Amino acid sequence: MRIGVVVNPVAGMGGRVGLKGTDGKVQEARQRGAEPRAPARAERALSRLYDVAPETELFTWGDPMGASVARAVGFEPRVLGEPEHEETDAADTIAAVDAFVEAGVELVLFVGGDGTAADVADALDGSGVPLLGVPAGVKVYSSVFAVSPEDAAVVATTFERTEAREVMDIDEDDYRAGEVHPELRAVAQVPVAEDLQSSKQTSTGTVEALAAGVADDIRAETGVTYVLGPGSTVGAVKDELGIDGSPLGVDVYRDGELLVRDATEAEILSSLGETNVIVVTPIGGQGFIFGRGNPQLSPDVIRRCDVSVVASRSKLDTIPVLRVDTDDPELDEELRGWTKVRVGRVERRMMKIE
Fold first, then answer.
1. Mean of the per-residue pLDDT values of the chain
2. Sign of CA dihedral 67, 107, 98, 45
3. Is the pTM of this model over 0.70?
4. Which secondary structure element, helix H or strand E, spans residue 149, and what is its range?
5. What is the dihedral of CA 313, 314, 317, 319, to 10 degrees?
């Protein structure tokens, strides 16, 4: 396998000296006695990579962005270039990734934090090459990182497919002031594996991104009738669509128009078309997607629709399983099993319906 490895040598330096990050604070971090963290994290990942797949064809960038670390663990990497300045920056990361793509790598393995992830994702945009992060930053809100450096090595050499995952970042000055406002910086292809971390949950940011993604998909579909259930998460989708939906009721929407607000079962059935989708969110703490709080979504309605479940990550963290109680045992049995729950602009989590 051909893997490009790039290390952000200053990632995470500000953490142990109380700076909560190194964006614009590298010199201050050094003045406070900070030691580089990323090289050691890179060595752990590459040492494990050499153990499990020594035949890997490794491409790197010049020191301090990966070459020496790769050699230290036993690889003979192809060094495709050098950083322009002693103090590396985002332009060096992007230059390295561009060179990796030209060389035909199958994966870019980067060592850094959310800012590095955003730089790598921007450079890879449109290339079709996936990325995978070795976590080394102070703040790691994105879901493109392995859980540990060693996990990154195993995932890099064993994955069979990729999926879209979110690159999030926050303003470090706000973070230092005690405010966290994650922003979606990119959507990148990442290996599918169990040993990847999820995005960190915030009170509003993730729900907003989720709602925006669902609303974008709804607008892109013509001729599809959407039955939008109750709850604050689906309510955020309704807000994104610009409709005056019912917060506790069921609304019917198609092709930019609110067909019925706070609909009854009969009104829903009369509004359905050839293609229909129910959008529901589980009840927090209980996990019911049907049978609690949305009796309008009767068995007759459900049988005529596809079902899309959406939820914030924090809600799913409190729910071990999803549940259904539609008053139709046969339908309940049909609905049981594993399903994908949308938790972000593009991300989904597998949950079991019982």
1. 87
2. negative
3. no
4. helix 149-158
5. -100
Q: Where are the beta strands (DSSP E) in 305-347?
A: 306-310, 323-324, 337-342
**Sign of the Cα pseudo-torsion (192, 193, 194, 197, in order):** negative
> Which of these, 153, 185, 217, 199, lies nearest to 349 by C-alpha position?
199
Residues 160, 193 contacting (CB under 8 angstroms): no
Q: Where are the beta strands (DSSP E) in the chain?
A: 2-7, 57-60, 78-79, 107-112, 131-135, 162-169, 183-191, 224-228, 251-254, 257-260, 275-280, 288-290, 306-310, 323-324, 337-342, 348-353
Reply yes or no: is the peptide bond before residue 39 cis, omega within 30 of 0: no
Question: What is the tens place of the pLDDT at every residue in 231-272?
Answer: 889 999 999 999 999 888 899 999 999 999 989 899 999 999
Is the separation of the CB atoms in 134 and 149 below 8 Å? yes
Enumerate the β-bridge partners of residue 2: 57
Average pLDDT estimate for 88-111: 97
Residues 257-283 as b/e (b if ≥16 CB within 10 A, e otherwise) read: ebbbbebeeeebeebbeeebbbbbbbb
Q: What is the pLDDT of residues 305-332, one digit of tens each?
A: 999 999 998 888 888 899 898 888 899 9
Residues 6+ apart with CB under 8 A from 327: 291, 298, 299
Fill in the amino acid letter for 348: R
**What is the identity of the amino acid at 241?**
L
pLDDT tens for 27-69 read 665 666 656 778 998 999 999 999 999 999 999 999 999 999 9
Say what percent of the chain tops pLDDT 90.
62
Could you tell me if 178 and 158 are in contact, meaning their C-beta atoms sit under 8 angstroms apart?
no
Name residue 341's beta-bridge partners: 309, 349
Strand bridging mode 162-169 / 183-191: antiparallel
- Can you tell me whether residue 252 is helix, strand or coil? strand
d(CA 108, CA 256): 40
Closest to 300 measured CA to CA, from 268, 322, 275, 277: 268
